[in-house]
């Protein structure tokens, strides 16, 4: 069995795939190969699975980018996220964290919004590029709050981090583990808010968006397992059952907490409904940014 990771051999997607692959191999009694196929925002790896044989031996470790953002972002996407895949199982998700440089002197998200409204375009945020998930998270924040904050795209996280800490940009929007590992440092970066309804165990002092009065700010990064369209239902159901059991295990729960991730058991049909909602969510956000990739 092969699980295609649409990113290089590092980062949260690869780490999750390898952890699940090891546990699946034990439960299924067969080897599980992790095949990293990065490039083009994950679409190269996703396309390879869309074109693979639907015999139950090839799966995609799908991401928000490959299944929800890509259809709105790419003019010429070489796969159909709805028609070319069978949803197998929702895996994990992580909230988005609003991080400001400490020297800005902002204590909470309401002070941030007030400053951004008082002085439009004074503030700037960094992202990993046009159409990236953190770019769209920032644009959603701007839309909800009615603020103008300048976008500064980067090609790598190291210069983004240094520019935040040294005051050349003012804030970033990052996943929980990225925020913790790369941006939050005493006197350097401060977490103001996490997206969604609940607080993060990694940032217990940062309110949730719901607590902060921004309930609609529910953008998160998520991962799921997909199979090529037409994969037999018994295979899909068996894989769903095994993955739900793995994700409920104490060992996996410990790993998820450490990585700022959470899970929710879904049937393949429930996962399909979730995917439809996510695709619809990103269309207006991408349209508002005018971000398009040919």
Question: Could you name the key traits of this structure?
Answer:
about 290 residues, alpha/beta, D-Maltodextrin-Binding Protein, domain 2, nine-stranded mixed beta sheet, 10 helices, about 20% strand, globular
CATH top level of the largest domain is Alpha Beta
Number of strands: 9
Oligomer: single chain
**In percent terms, what proportion of residues is strand?**
15-25%
Order of helices and strands: EHEHEHEHEHEHEHEEHHH
Distance between the termini: 33 Å
CATH architecture of the largest domain: 3-Layer(aba) Sandwich
Stretches where pLDDT is under 50 for at least 5 consecutive residues are none
Biggest sheet statistics: 9 strands, mixed
Q: Which fold name fills CATH's third level, the topology of the largest domain?
A: D-Maltodextrin-Binding Protein, domain 2
Cα-based radius of gyration, to the nearest Å: 19 Å
Average predicted confidence as pLDDT: 94
Broad shape:
globular
| CATH homologous superfamily assignment of the largest domain | Bordetella uptake gene, domain 1
Count of separate DSSP helical elements: 10
- Helical amount: 40-55%
Count of all domains: 2
Q: Which structural class do you get from the secondary structure elements?
A: alpha/beta
């Amino acid at each position: 069995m092969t699980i295609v990771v649409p990113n290089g051999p590092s980062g949260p997607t690869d780490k999750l795939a390898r952890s699940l692959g090891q546990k699946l191999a034990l439960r299924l009694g067969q080897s599980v190969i992790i095949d990293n196929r990065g490039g083009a925002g994950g679409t190269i790896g996703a396309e390879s699975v869309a074109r693979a044989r639907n015999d139950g031996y090839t799966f995609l470790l799908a991401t928000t980018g490959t299944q929800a953002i890509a259809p709105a972002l790419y003019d010429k996407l070489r796969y159909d996220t709805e028609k070319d895949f069978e949803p197998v199982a929702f895996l994990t998700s992580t909230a988005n964290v609003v991080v400001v440089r400490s020297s800005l002197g902002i204590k909470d998200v309401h002070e941030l919004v007030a400053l951004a409204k008082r002085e439009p375009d004074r503030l700037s945020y960094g992202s990993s590029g046009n159409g990236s998930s953190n770019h769209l998270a920032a644009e959603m924040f701007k839309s909800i709050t009615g603020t103008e904050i300048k976008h500064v795209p980067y090609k790598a996280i190291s210069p983004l981090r240094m520019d935040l800490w040294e005051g050349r940009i003012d804030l970033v929007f990052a996943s929980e583990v990225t925020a913790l590992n790369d941006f939050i440092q005493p006197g350097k970066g401060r977490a103001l808010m996490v997206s969604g309804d609940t607080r993060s165990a990694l940032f217990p002092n940062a309110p949730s968006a719901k607590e902060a009065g921004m309930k609609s700010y529910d953008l998160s990064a998520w991962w799921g397992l997909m199979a090529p369209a037409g994969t037999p239902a018994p295979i899909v159901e068996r894989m769903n059952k095994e993955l739900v059991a793995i994700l409920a295990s104490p060992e996996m729960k410990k790993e998820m907490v450490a990585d700022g991730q959470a899970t929710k058991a879904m049937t393949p049909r429930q996962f399909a409904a979730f995917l439809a909602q996510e695709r619809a969510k990103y269309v207006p956000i991408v349209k508002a940014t005018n971000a398009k990739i040919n």
